[in-house]
Every structure is written in C-alpha cells, then in structure tokens.
TrEMBL record:
One of its GO terms (cellular component) is beta-galactosidase complex. InterPro entries: GH, Glyco_hydro_42_N. The keyword RNA-binding does not apply. GO terms for molecular function: beta-galactosidase activity. Residues 103-159 form the Glycoside hydrolase family 42 N-terminal domain. Keywords: Glycosidase, Hydrolase. This is Glycoside hydrolase family 42 N-terminal domain-containing protein. It holds the Pfam family Glyco_hydro_42.
C-alpha cells in the first residue's frame, strides 16, 4: 500500500516536471513556536493549552480587564521582533547547505487561539502600532469616528474592539482592523 502511494506521488511529481526531490531531506520547523503558537506549546508539567485555558477563565470572570488581553509574547514588541529575526536568520544560515524542503515558523501559528473572545493583543506595543496604522489608514480622528461610529476625542483613547464587541455592533471595522493590524505588526509591516 505504502509503495503504491509513493509511486502515485512520484508519477504526479514527474507530471509536474519534478524529476528528483532527493536533495530535500527534511523540513525545518523553526523555534518560532514560542512566539507564534504560544497558546498551545508543549510543557512537561502542564497540558499544552494550560495558559490559554487560564486566560480564558480570567477573561470570563472579568471581561473588562484588558491586561488579560495582552498577548505574551507580544509580536509588536521590539525585543520579540529582534529575537525572531535573529532566530530565523540563524536557522536559515545553519541549514542552507542541507537545503530543507521548506521552513515553517511554528505549529498552527496565529495571533491568538483562533477566534476566541480574547483573540487580540492589547499590549501597549500593539495599541501604539494599531493607532499608527489607523492614522495612516484614516488620516484623521474624525474619519475614524465616522467609519467606526465612535466618538473618540484623542488618538490615545482609540483601541480595537474585542470579538464580543465586534459581534455586538453592526459594523465590524474596529475588530477587523485590530486583527489585521496585529497580523501585520507580527510580520514587521
């Protein structure tokens, strides 16, 4: 059975013009899981979703405590970015002669645990990056307020909506913008 599967794969690869993949011995899952998949990382003394479940419990108990909504590690934090850049550069250099088939940054990477009610980062780093992104996108606070149907008096008060808040209103701009901003911030945009 296994041999038949390999023959089919080999035949399909040849149809695509690939005659040999032997130089690619493995794929490399880099050490980025600590940053991109932190909500489900293996630990010897706890189940892998322990911290996610603790955050969920805390948020259910108090949905107004935005400290719970700070992602750890924050992808907008310059220290996190510097560490990831070093890690990916180092691993790329270390494995360039053995030519892995592909590199991956982590297992099921995400901003948070998919679409949980506390799935964004409200850290000071992310809020600052989000506001800067909004200023470029909307130009003025008045334009933002009009689009969001909000009444912010100054940029420092602006924050994105949680999933709960986004679903509770008819326009999802503040939640969608925060998700997009968090994702862009994590890749250095």
């Amino acid at each position: 059975m296994r041999r038949q599967v390999h023959k089919r794969i080999d035949r399909r690869l040849r149809e695509l013009g690939l005659s040999d993949i032997s130089p690619y011995r493995y794929y490399l899952e880099t050490g980025g899981a600590w940053a991109f998949s932190a909500y489900h990382i293996w630990m010897a003394d706890k189940e892998k979703t322990y911290y996610h479940k603790q955050a969920k419990k805390a948020f259910i108990a108090d949905r107004t405590n935005f400290r719970i909504l700070e992602r750890n590690p924050c992808l907008s934090n310059h220290i996190t970015k510097r560490r990831l850049k070093w890690l990916f550069t180092h691993e790329g250099r270390m494995h360039r002669t053995t030519r892995p088939l592909f590199y991956t940054i982590g297992d099921e990477p995400g901003v948070a645990n998919q679409v949980a009610p506390f799935d964004y980062c409200f850290s000071p780093h992310c809020k600052k990056a989000f506001r800067e992104w909004l200023k470029k996108r909307y130009g003025t606070l008045e334009a933002l307020n009009e689009q969001w149907e909000s009444d912010y008096k100054k940029w420092d008060d602006v924050r994105g909506a949680t999933t709960d808040e986004t679903f509770a209103r008819k326009g999802g701009a503040s939640g969608a913008g925060l998700r997009l901003s968090c994702g862009l911030s994590g890749v250095g945009s």
